[in-house]
Write a structure and sequence with these properties.
Elements: H1 10-18, E1 20-22, E2 29-31, H2 33-44, E3 49-50, H3 58-67, H4 76-93, E4 99-103, E5 106-112, H5 113-116, H6 129-141, E6 145-152, H7 159-179, E7 187-191, H8 204-210, E8 212-219
Length: 223
């Protein structure tokens, strides 16, 4: 059963914001993405489910967005809003290895495990920070959406290990996006372990496809 909690460590988020490094050639101070990602992952800890401060439900997430002044979408504006976001995601993620799918008015980003993480690790590959930066930039441009981050694993090894790994990987991705100022109240984070394959686990190619993190982006619509 997926554990749900209602807070993320504020201290870890502040520490992540402060993680910088100085370029020895230019003297310029810039963000240290590796350190930031590690601290955010630690800050999320076992934080799964809805990440709002006061609510543990879909309704709570909706209320949090309204409270943050993010208006709901309605009518033809929903499709137009998601059309523009889809176009920007496709342009930004071209050749990144991340799949972009449109499902009605939802967007699904499929991040293969071999691109995003080292083997059996929940540490984000350094080269993948640029991709997540692009994703966070677009999410911040389109705040009227919910962001569901779901981790998946193949069936190799023990089921409980695969469940825990899928959770940690989802936490790492969500945590990094939050560190890039994507509103935390928009998030739902979960791991499904090996329970939701998209290919056969009987082949190496199928297992590779099943090791993934998916980000489902859904419009915040008027009830």
């Amino acid at each position: 059963m997926i554990t749900r909690v209602v807070s993320v460590s504020a201290a870890a988020l502040l520490l992540a914001t402060a993680c910088t490094t100085t370029d020895p050639y230019t003297g310029e101070t810039r963000a240290n993405n590796t350190a930031r990602g590690a601290l955010i992952g630690a800050g999320l800890g076992a934080a799964l489910g809805y990440l709002t401060n006061t609510n543990d439900s879909e309704e709570g997430r909706t209320n949090a967005l309204i409270g943050a002044g993010i208006g709901a979408l309605a009518g033809a504006g929903i499709g137009n809003y998601m059309d523009r976001q889809e176009q920007q995601m496709r342009e930004a993620l071209r050749d990144s290895g991340v799949g972009v799918r449109r499902e009605g008015n939802d967007l699904r980003l499929i991040m293969p495990g071999d691109v995003t993480f080292a083997t059996n690790s929940s540490d984000i590959e350094p080269r993948f920070y640029t991709v997540l930066n692009d994703v966070s930039d677009i999410l911040n441009q389109y705040p009227a959406t919910y962001v569901d981050v779901i981790g998946h694993a193949d069936s190799t090894g023990a089921a409980d290990y695969n469940q825990a790994l899928s959770e940690r990987r989802a936490q790492s991705v969500a945590g990094y996006l939050i560190s890039q100022r994507v509103l935390r109240d928009r998030f739902y984070v979960a791991g499904l372990g090996e329970s939701s394959p998209i290919a056969s686990n009987d082949t190496p190619q199928g297992r590779a496809a099943n090791r993934r993190v998916e980000i489902r982006i859904r419009p915040h619509v008027a009830s």
